[in-house]
Amino acid sequence: MNSISTAKTVTGAKRYSAGVMKYAEMGYWEPDYEPKETDVIALFRITPQDGVDAVEAAAAVAGESSTATWTVVWTDRLTACEKYRAKAYRVDPVPNSEGEYFAYIAYDLDLFEGGSIANLTASIIGNVFGFKPLKALRLEDMRLPVAYVKTFQGPATGIVVERERLNCYGRPLLGATVKPKLGLSGRNYGRVVYEALRGGLDFTKDDENINSQPFMHWRDRFLYCMEAVTRASAATGEVKGTYLNVTAATMEDMYERAEFAKALGSVVIMIDLVIGYTAIQSMAKWARANDMILHLHRAGHSTYTRQRSHGVSFRVIAKWMRLAGVDHLHAGTVVGKLEGDPATTKGYYDIFREEYNPMTLENGIFFDQDWASLNKMMPVASGGIHAGQMHQLIHYLGEDVVLQFGGGTIGHPQGIAAGATANRVALEAMIYARNSGRDYYNEGPEILKEAAKKCAPLQQALDTWKDVTFDYASTDSPDFVPTPAVAV
Amino acid sequence: MRLTQGQFSYLDDFTDEDIRVQAQYAIDQGWSVSVEYTDDPHPRNTYWEMWGHPMFDNPDAAAVVYEVNECRKLHGGKYIRVIAFDSSPGWESIRMSFIVNRPEVEPGFRLIRQEEEGRVVRYTIQSYACDRPEGQRYA
């Protein structure tokens, strides 16, 4: 059992006498503190070790993520130390989760270097995550003040300009990841790109681990892919793209690959989350300077986002990536094969696409967040989705999203182009139905059946994947459930 | 070939009723609908000719259908599209775009490859229709 103490900050000379003192007494617990508009606020889910007081644990998190060390130091008195101390100001037990607490911690803006995710994260998720008195610690959400948001570039292109460049409006974009993800030669790889794009997709995509391997070196891939992209563009009269993954061992390598993609006329390049925050910000800056859409594949995120008790929520990663400046980021499908509770996923999508996020506890959003006109990020839905789910996808994910049907395109019985056409027809038919006022969510299967009468590839897609769903319990659902106003 | 720009090019060509239904959706969202035409369908030809200004205060999609048909009288052998503008902050751009008229024959695009060193190819896409001067293409 853990208690919630009523510790008070020690003041005067006693505060600085040498030795060890409770964090909550050192000024890291200020229950009366009202966060300033310019404070960065972090919400942590803390699980103290047995017997550790929840307030002391929260104060320790505040201390270790700002100015504190394990003992009193007199050099504090050379600084405006009260300003630089992060302040835990609220600790609530987590509903229905014995032993877990939500700790709200406010940080003065001067603790952070402007425009640097690396600096922000070095404090907020630095030493503190290994702190012994805690069993587990999770960063659930952050409030980023406008003054701080304005120090970041934000998405290099943004949803609006991306659509203008692609000349594509009024419907989700369609994509597919080339499969098999490893082993194809450059020539064979480009074939998949060509077929998928000429069949009706807007984008194809390298997978996260396609870089420059013995079976296909990067230059070869870029050359064949751009032949495919341009051929498909000529065949349809549409702007097409393929996310050329420039992820590499060094920044120098990544810049070289990005420059080559630009020279070949690509509209988009891709990086993986594993390259790190600074590298992501560098590529975002390059993308802004070179009119390039920047796709980020969130490779690796589940190592720290998936478990509810420890790590960093994906909603926080999404906020950091919007600041860092990527244009596309994977955000879940709800109905596909990868983790994604509908309410939590809606919270992510709102963080990507809205100008302002009001606090929405049922979607896991704990703070009002003003994005201060930073560009919007295009969410990407990928992983185990197919044409038969089109009504559900549009219902849950909306219009400004890239729907990526990898297996659902390439696995089509009549070939890749037929698979692409099936997806495009299903999409356009569903958008048509929605716009004309039909109850497309409930009538979805009917709408698809009607569209398939005129499109054999769609009929074949529906027959092949008709009942495929991935219905597993989510490991990361919101802690707060709205109480219905009317009993059902 | 079939030019597949716009959000409904993979469906059957639109009837007047289809145009009305989709334009009314745009109007009901608070967007302004306008009609544009071109005889240069290059994917990066951003500025099609405007058939008048966007219909900023028009509440009824029947007027859009009327303008499309007026435009057809003069430019029936060309591409005509309907687009919807959203002036709300943070968007201030196009929300919908769909083709409502196409030439009888769509000759498509030529892909020109300029071969350079290191296997690099510079690509250019040209509409076959643009071999002829503006105004003398298609019909």
Strand-helix topology:
The complex is a heterodimer of chains A (488) and B (139).
Chain A: E1 40-48, H1 54-64, H2 81-84, E2 87-93, E3 101-107, H3 117-124, E4 134-143, H4 146-149, H5 158-166, E5 173-177, H6 186-199, E6 203-205, H7 218-236, E7 241-245, H8 251-263, E8 268-272, H9 277-289, E9 293-297, H10 302-305, E10 311-312, H11 314-324, E11 328-330, H12 342-353, E12 356-357, E13 369-370, E14 378-382, H13 390-397, E15 402-404, H14 407-410, H15 416-435, H16 440-453, H17 456-465
Parallel strand pairs in A: 4-10, 5-6, 5-15, 6-7, 7-8, 8-9, 9-11, 11-14, 14-15
Antiparallel strand pairs in A: 1-3, 1-4, 2-3, 12-13
Helix pairs in contact in A: 6-7, 6-15, 11-12, 13-16, 15-16, 15-17, 16-17
Chain B: H1 16-28, E1 32-38, E2 49-50, H2 61-75, E3 79-86, E4 93-101, E5 109-115, E6 121-127
Antiparallel strand pairs in B: 1-2, 1-3, 3-4, 5-6
Helix pairs in contact in B: 1-2
3D architecture notes:
The complex is a heterodimer of chains A (488) and B (139). Chain A has 488 residues and is an alpha/beta fold. Chain A is 36% helix and 15% strand. Chain A has an 8-stranded parallel beta barrel with strand order 5-6-7-8-9-11-14-15, surrounded by 6 helices. A 5-stranded mixed sheet of chain A has the order 2-3-1-4-10. The longest helix of chain A is centred in the last third of the chain and has 20 residues, at 416-435. Residues 484-488 of chain A have low confidence and may be disordered. With 139 residues, chain B is an alpha+beta fold. In chain B, 20% of the residues lie in helices and 29% in strands. In chain B, the strands form 2 sheets. Chain B has a 4-stranded antiparallel sheet. A two-stranded antiparallel ribbon of chain B has the order 5-6. In chain B, a hairpin with a 6-residue loop joins strand 3 (79-86) and strand 4. In chain B, helix 1 (16-28) crosses helix 2 (61-75). The two termini of chain B are 16 Å apart. The mean pLDDT of chain B is 95.
